[in-house]
From TrEMBL:
Any one of the GO CC terms: cytoplasm
Originating organism: candidate division WOR-3 bacterium
Listed GO MF terms: alcohol dehydrogenase (NAD+) activity; metal ion binding
PANTHER family: ALCOHOL DEHYDROGENASE 1-RELATED, VACUOLAR PROTEIN SORTING-ASSOCIATED PROTEIN 11
Protein name, per record: Alcohol dehydrogenase
Lyase among keywords: no
Length: 118
């Protein structure tokens, strides 16, 4: 579901759209999604209770799928492997928290379904 403009859920701000299938870069993998849940965080994004970081955005971060494409440097993953996708999409890797193995406290995080498409 694609969100192009935040609005109350009663006003049906989400749209079902066909999007181009993304290609993973060298360090990424691509999943064929099996299931994706919607939680209250997604509704906070949809309704504008959390300010928009990226528009349009594909919401959802409770995702399970199978690897269907592997970037050339993402060697630890195998085609067909079943994986879950976390809310924490990416961290900066350079702040004091990242450098002390506490990425969950990163100063510049990116979140799935908020900063990056879910």
């Amino acid at each position: 579901m694609v969100l192009k403009k935040q609005d109350r859920i009663e006003n049906s701000p989400l749209r079902l759209e066909e999007l181009p299938v993304p290609e993973p870069d060298a360090t990424e993998i691509r999943l064929k999604i099996s299931v994706c849940g919607v939680c209250r965080t997604d509704l906070h994004i949809v309704e504008g209770e959390l300010p928009a970081h990226k528009m349009p955005v594909v919401i959802g971060h409770q995702i399970v799928g199978r690897v269907d494409k592997v970037g050339r440097n993402a060697k630890k993953y195998k085609l067909g492997e079943r994986l879950g996708v976390p809310w924490l999409f990416k961290t900066c890797g350079i702040c004091k928290y990242c450098k002390s193995n506490r990425e969950n406290l990163c100063d510049n995080p990116m979140f799935t379904g908020y900063d990056a498409d879910g």
